[in-house]
Each structure stands twice: as structure tokens, then as C-alpha cells.
Amino acid sequence: MDIIAQLFAGLSLGSVLLLAALGLSLTFGQMGVINMAHGEFMMAGAYTAFVVQGVVGDAGVSLLLALPLGFVVGGLLGLLLEATLIHRMYRRPLDTLLVTWGVALVLQQVARDVFGAPNVDVRAPAWLSGAVEIGGLALPRTRLFILALAAVCVVALALALRATPLGRRIRAVVQNRDLAEASGISSRTTDRVTFFIGSGLAGIAGVALTLLGSIGPTLGTNYIVDAFLVVVAGGIGQVKGTVIAATALGLMQAFFEYSTTASVAKVLVFVAVVAFLQLRPQGLVSVRTRSLA
Amino acid sequence: MLELSGVTTGYGRTTVVHGVDLTVPDGALTAVLGHNGAGKTTLLRAVLGLLPLRAGAVLLNGADVTALAPHKRVRRGIAYVPQGQQSFGQLSARENLQVVADAYGRAGRRRTDEALDLFPALRDLLGRQAGLLSGGQRQQLAIARALVTGPRLLVLDEPVEGIQPNVVSEIYDAISALTSSGDLSVLLVEQHLGYAVEHAAEFAVLTSGRIAHRGQGGGPSAAADARKALAL
């Protein structure tokens, strides 16, 4: 029974990591932009849930409203960042890292000024309170909801990338920008839409995090390193790899925590990922081609 | 009609193409010949807008397109097949065509069919990842992808370079079929004289980024004429 409980804890943690990393798999994985403000877009999504609940009152309705609104708020912040700063810095990763880190600090301060420094709570709806009993095991409804939300986001993103004209354009621009332009595809427009979606997914992740505890201006900093770790370990630009890596890292963390402490478990996970990347620098999933492009 | 007027461009501090004047008339094949490093690809990238001009202008059907982004030039009727059998390697062959056809609706689907009629062997490979196709197959796919844009001018950068001989003839046959209708102009860049000089209405020889010689293609003396210019 303990094993199954740890398995669920690992999957649950993996789903949170996945939500945090999914948007990053687009902006970093597909576009190569090291956006250190990605965590702050999650924070913005979380505060969107807080504001919506303040306006609507009903916790259930506000959660359902906050998910699409969090997507839009995160997306618009990403769009603004891409249009004002990042588009001038493609192929300059170090500059992008420093600038977006600065933006992250600015956004944290804005959140402090607007909402105050102390953490705030967002009430979970009644239908997510308590746990579901399965075989004597209590599975918290909030965790199950986040698992389902992560699954929906993954399927929606995978379908969007695989089976829609927009998805084809995104993959084409990512693979060969000049060839895409020379094929009549506007790489600027595609970049902006991609960044909007990736940042919007961070907003959704932020809304989901309000179900797990109180939220504050530094919420995103707790997840940004793990999110990059997931994308790199999964294989740059591969959604499938991101899913597998998030699940694996969540399970590893949960099982290490079972026999050690949370901080030792974290160290062990980092060591395992570093060792793995020594053996397989391209990450879990990579694509074979015969051509250069 | 494409007109290049005093086109000057390059990379960093190096100017590679110096004041090139060139006209590609409607419905004709025009060839630009030159050795490696002569500036042929650089010139074509400037025509497409992938490289900014330092001086000069690019005119398409009388309109100045110098300031237009590459994808907007494509919408005006220029299609480009770059050097090196380039494809979107992680997309399937079908998706390589679809990603272009998406923007043109029903016309895009019709032109996809027409392009596949030109290279029927591609029909059996549509589900395959483009990056796993052979060089010849990828080049056929690249030309088909360019044709889906419905071009009035097709720009080809060394289309048979590194291609197995049996596919070379298929590609040349396809170019001949496209130009024979008279609806499509072709700007063909080549290192090798054979097909280009034989089929071009006019050709120009590029040396160190400058037009060193111009001639009429097709005639008995054209090849010797071009060979002499290339040897200079």
C-alpha cells in the first residue's frame, strides 16, 4: 500500500512539474528562448485565480473561469515580453537569460506592490475538497484534478502541434526559420503565437498551483529550475519527452523522499539527471534525420 | 518579370555581391553561372529578402519589393528552392506540402496535387519523415513545396547538386515541363553548364560577386561562350 501511495504522490508531483514545464517545452524547447520569467507567468496565473475569486466569490465557478483567464493573462504577458524584448535577442541566449531574469524580478515586485508581500489563499471549490477512497487509499481530489488538467493540456498541445495548420507552422519555423519564410510562412507571427501559447500554459499551471497551497510573489521561482530540468532531460523540443521526464522526475522525487528527506531527495534527483545527461546529452527523446534541416 | 538593379549585399563587413543588374523576363529560363564562392547563393538570398541589400533594388513585375519580408515576396509570386535539398526534416513529406498549402485553401490543395503529378514517386512517400528521405527525394519535395505557393517566378539554387544521376534527369525534365507552359519564369543558379546553358534564354556568369559575362543560351556557341567566361 505504501508503494502505491508513493506512486500516486510521484505521479501527482510529476503532473505539477509537467504543467510547469509544458509551456517551457514550447518557448525553450521549440524556440530556444531561455525565459527566466516563465515562473512569473505562473505566478500571474495564480494571482488571476485570486482576483477572479475575489470578484466571483463562488470557488467552483471562479476556478473554471480562472483557467482560461489565467491562460490569457500568462499569454498576454508572454506576448508583451516577446514583442518588446525577446524578439530582439533570438540567437543571443545569454542576453535573453539575463533580461528575462530582470523581468522576473520586476514582475515579482509588481505582485508585491499590488497584492502585498504576504502569501494569499485561493479557496478550492467544495467538489475538490476531501479525497477519493480507492482500495483503502485516500487520493486528494485536488491532486486528481491537477493530474487530469495536466493530461488535458498535454493532449490539447500535442493535437494542436500535430494536427492543426498552426501546429505545422510552429514546427516548420522551429526547424528552419529561413526555409519557412521562403515558403511563405511569417516567422514573426508564428513566434508570437508560439510564445503566447507557451506563456498561457504557464498561466494555467499557476491557476492549478492555487489548489495546492497559498500563493505569493515568488511562487514561480520554486518551479522554474525544475521546469527547465524537465525540458532538458526530456529532449529539447519534444513534448513526448517532456511528459516522460516530468513523470520520471516526480516519481524519483517521491520515492527518494520516502526513504530520505525532501532536500536529500532533491539532491539525488539532480545527481541522477546530471548523470543521465552525461550518458545521453540529447535527452530522452530525440529525432533522427538524414538531412541537415 | 524580376529586375535586379545594382544589387549589393554581403555578410558582416564583407560585401559579397557588388552592383548586380539582372532581368528575368516572363515565361523564360534565366541562368546565373559561377564557381563556388562566386556569390550565387548570396544573390538569391538577397532576391528572396533573406539577406538585406546594402544598395540597389529588387523589382517584381515593376513593384519595388526590396523592403518586403521574404514571406511577403513569396505571396507576390516568388518561390525559392534553396541549395542543399532543404526540407522541414521532422515533418512528414505530406506535412511539408500541407504547411505551405494551408495558407492557400482550395488552391493550395489543387496545386499540391499538380506538384505531386510532376513527381509521382513522392505520392508513396508522403507519410515518411522528410528528414529520412534520400537527397533526390528531398529535392523533389523541395521543388513540389515551392510550386504549392503558385509562383510566377521559381528560383532554383543548384537543384541537382549532390543528387543521384537518375533523379537529376527527372528534376531537369520537371523544370523543362514547368517552363514549357510559358506561365512560369525560372531563375536557375548552377555551377555546371550543361542544362542551364542549353535551356536558358539568357545566362549571366558571376565572378567574385560581379556579372563578368552575359550571353544567349541555346545556340551552338553558348556552351563554349560560357565556359570561356567561367575560366576567366
TrEMBL record, chain A:
Location of this chain's protein in the cell: Cell membrane
Keyword tRNA processing: no
CDD domains: TM_PBP1_LivH_like
Descriptive protein name: Urea ABC transporter permease subunit UrtB
Highest taxon, organism lineage: Bacteria
Keyword Transferase included in the entry's annotation: no
Family from the record: Belongs to the binding-protein-dependent transport system permease family. LivHM subfamily.
Alphabetized PANTHER family for the sequence: ABC TRANSPORTER PERMEASE PROTEIN (PTHR11795:SF447), BRANCHED-CHAIN AMINO ACID TRANSPORT SYSTEM PERMEASE PROTEIN LIVH (PTHR11795)
Predominant cellular place of this UniProt entry's protein: membrane
Keyword annotations: Amino-acid transport, Cell membrane, Membrane, Transmembrane, Transmembrane helix, Transport
Organismal lineage: Bacteria, Bacillati, Actinomycetota, Actinomycetes, Micrococcales
Transmembrane segments: 63-81, 144-161, 193-215, 227-251, 263-279
Topological category with respect to the lipid bilayer: Multi-pass membrane protein
Automatic annotation (TrEMBL), chain B:
UniProt keyword annotation of Nucleotide-binding present: yes
InterPro entries: AAA+_ATPase (IPR003593), ABC_transporter-like_ATP-bd (IPR003439), BCAA_Transport_ATP-bd_LivF (IPR052156), P-loop_NTPase (IPR027417)
Keywords: Amino-acid transport, ATP-binding, Nucleotide-binding, Transport
Gene Ontology molecular function: ATP binding
Domain of life the protein comes from: Bacteria
Annotated Gene3D superfamilies: P-loop containing nucleotide triphosphate hydrolases (3.40.50.300)
Domain ABC transporter: 2-232
Matching SMART domains: AAA (SM00382)
A Pfam family that the UniProt record links to this protein: ABC_tran
Keyword Nucleotide-binding applies: yes
Family per record: Belongs to the ABC transporter superfamily.
Protein name: ATP-binding cassette domain-containing protein
Originating organism: Myceligenerans pegani
